[in-house]
């Protein structure tokens, strides 16, 4: 505190001038603790305009446990002419915000008799912590917005001013919804209320679906990381805001180039492969082929058909992501669809020594959907199961009714998917480390396409179990009607058309 000793009594006007020039919060009181004058910094701390400080009892701002001590300190200084420091006094603003302050009490001789000048500043340890916190906040690379439990902004850093176009004075004290687009404000209020009930560190907007609003009204995509801060003023929430506009632009450009590449390459490959398969099938009908030539032709046709399936998968994936999946809705009995898929996969299963079995219901299980697309989804699940099941293993398919749904379960006796996130196997082009290490053929498209087909039918696909004993995928579709129409067991399965 600035030393205010003088040879003679101070004039109050001179003290008022000195106080006004001081950056330190200062209040002049009489021996009873009634404020005579103060400066703007003291007004800010105590929550009063400077003009209203005069006549206020200073001890009214102290907590009950400190009030008597502060009052006695003022009287001691006034009577004994000694300087005194009160550490960590608890002083509150009019609005109820508490501060831990160091009070320096200094006796004064004035034209109106003995008085006490009180200097107020944040407690030494708290002051250092506050300065460190503010320094770290300003050094943060992200825009940092700190709000209280009512959603009002209490602190921002320079990055916020740069990112949103507001000055700090325009933000502090305003509701944080000022930075949220109007169409999201209602949902944000509900989210904030839920966060206050269960505060924890968590990210927001990881999928690029969160937007913020600048002062000029423009919107931009953001990622936000939230963290609770327990303080003397209650719970505060720190939000680190990152502009991801450039990342989204690059991702969109990358997806566009990749899709164009897939489409171009797929179309260029499909034509020669189709011709190769067609001529190969004609050659297979020739009677003068040697046994060795027929074996070579079989290998050639199988390889060409596998490549054609891959190309078709690429075309399907591009179509899904470009304009959605085309579904020709009709009433479909799931049993024959699954039976066709199993029979189509049986030659491959026998070739690699895997036991393939299926259990179908004796009654019709009807869904509304596209039989070709549903068959494609089941084909992809079977193909995946056969790829990851070692020779001598087994693959089994179950079709059951479950809670108004039809569920198709594909069980294999492979080694499971390991420790990776189960949802990742449905990402396009995803290949597990074990698949790469074991050189399992495939491009990581089958399960992606299967999920797209199932979701287009209003269903779900998930991994029910995956461990060393094998993996089970479950494909669930809503039933078309609750009635069950009994079908003769000997009725032949209806064939399916060509799947695109």
Outline of the structure:
The protein has 13 helices and 18 strands. The chain is an alpha+beta fold. Strands 6, 7, 8, 9, 10 and 11 form a six-stranded antiparallel β-sheet that branches. The protein has a five-stranded antiparallel β-sheet with strand order 2-1-5-4-3, sandwiched between helices.
Question: What do these coordinates show?
Answer:
The protein is α+β, with helices and mostly antiparallel strands and 500 residues long. The chain contains 13 helices and 18 strands. It has helices at residues 12-21, 40-46, 64-80, 124-139, 158-164, 168-171, 182-197, 245-284, 291-323, 334-351, 371-387, 433-437, 446-456, and strands at 25-29, 35-38, 84-92, 98-110, 113-122, 143-148, 153-156, 202-204, 211-213, 219-231, 234-243, 330-333, 355-359, 366-369, 394-402, 405-412, 460-467, 470-478. Strand 6 (143-148) and strand 7 (153-156) form a beta hairpin. The radius of gyration is 38 Å and the shape is elongated. The model is unreliable at 435-440 and 483-500 (pLDDT under 50).
Structural class: alpha+beta
**Radius of gyration in whole Å, from Cα?**
38 Å
Give the proportion of residues in helices: 40-55%
Name the overall outline.
elongated
The fraction of residues assigned to DSSP E strands is: 25-35%
Q: Quote the average pLDDT.
A: 78
Count the strands? 18
Our count of helices gives 13
- Show unreliable segments: 435-440, 483-500
Cα-to-Cα separation, first versus last residue = 84 Å
State the major sheet: 6 strands, antiparallel
């Amino acid at each position: 505190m600035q030393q205010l000793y003088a040879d003679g009594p101070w004039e109050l006007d001179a003290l008022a001038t000195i106080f006004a020039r001081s950056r330190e919060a200062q209040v002049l009181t009489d021996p009873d603790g009634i404020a005579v004058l103060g400066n703007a910094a003291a007004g800010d701390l105590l929550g009063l305009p400077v003009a209203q400080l005069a006549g206020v009892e200073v001890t009214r701002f102290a907590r009950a446990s400190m009030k008597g001590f502060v009052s006695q300190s003022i009287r001691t200084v006034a009577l004994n002419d000694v300087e005194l420091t009160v550490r960590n006094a608890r002083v509150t603003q009019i609005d109820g915000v508490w501060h831990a302050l160091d009070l320096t009490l200094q006796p004064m001789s004035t034209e109106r008799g003995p008085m006490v000048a009180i200097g107020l500043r944040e407690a030494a340890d708290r002051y250092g912590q506050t300065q460190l916190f503010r320094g770290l906040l300003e050094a943060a690379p992200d825009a940092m917005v700190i709000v209280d439990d009512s959603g009002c902004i209490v602190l921002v850093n320079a990055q916020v001013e740069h990112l949103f176009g507001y000055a700090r004075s325009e933000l502090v004290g305003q509701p944080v919804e000022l930075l949220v687009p109007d169409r999201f404000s209602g949902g944000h209020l509900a989210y904030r209320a839920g966060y206050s009930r269960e505060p924890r560190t968590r990210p927001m907007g990881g999928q690029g679906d969160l937007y913020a609003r600048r002062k000029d009204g423009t919107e931009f995509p953001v990622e936000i990381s939230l963290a609770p801060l327990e303080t003397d003023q209650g719970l505060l929430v720190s939000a680190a805001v990152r502009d991801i506009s450039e990342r989204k632009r690059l991702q969109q450009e990358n997806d566009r180039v990749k899709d164009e590449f897939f489409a171009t390459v797929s179309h260029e490959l499909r034509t020669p492969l189709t011709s190769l398969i067609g001529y190969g099938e004609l050659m297979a009908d020739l009677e003068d082929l040697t046994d060795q030539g027929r074996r070579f032709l079989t290998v050639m046709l199988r390889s060409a058909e596998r490549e054609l399936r891959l190309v078709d998968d690429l075309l399907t994936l591009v179509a899904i992501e470009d304009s959605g999946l085309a579904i020709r809705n009709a009433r479909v009995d799931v049993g024959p669809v699954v039976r066709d898929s199993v029979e189509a996969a049986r030659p491959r299963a026998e070739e690699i020594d895997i036991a393939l079995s299926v259990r179908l219901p004796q009654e019709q299980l009807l869904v509304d959907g596209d039989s070709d697309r549903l068959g494609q989804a089941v084909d992809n699940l079977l193909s995946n199961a056969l790829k990851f099941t070692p020779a001598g293993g087994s693959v089994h398919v179950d079709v059951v009714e479950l809670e108004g749904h039809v569920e198709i379960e594909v069980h294999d006796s492979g080694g499971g998917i390991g420790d990776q996130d189960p949802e990742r196997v449905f990402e396009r082009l995803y290949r597990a480390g074990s698949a790469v290490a074991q050189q399992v053929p495939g491009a990581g498209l089958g399960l992606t396409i299967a999920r797209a087909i199932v979701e287009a039918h209003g269903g779900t696909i998930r991994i029910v179990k995956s461990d060393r004993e094998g993996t089970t995928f479950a494909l669930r579709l809503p039933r078309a009607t609750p009635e069950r129409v009994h079908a003769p067991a000997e009725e032949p399965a209806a064939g399916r058309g060509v799947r695109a």
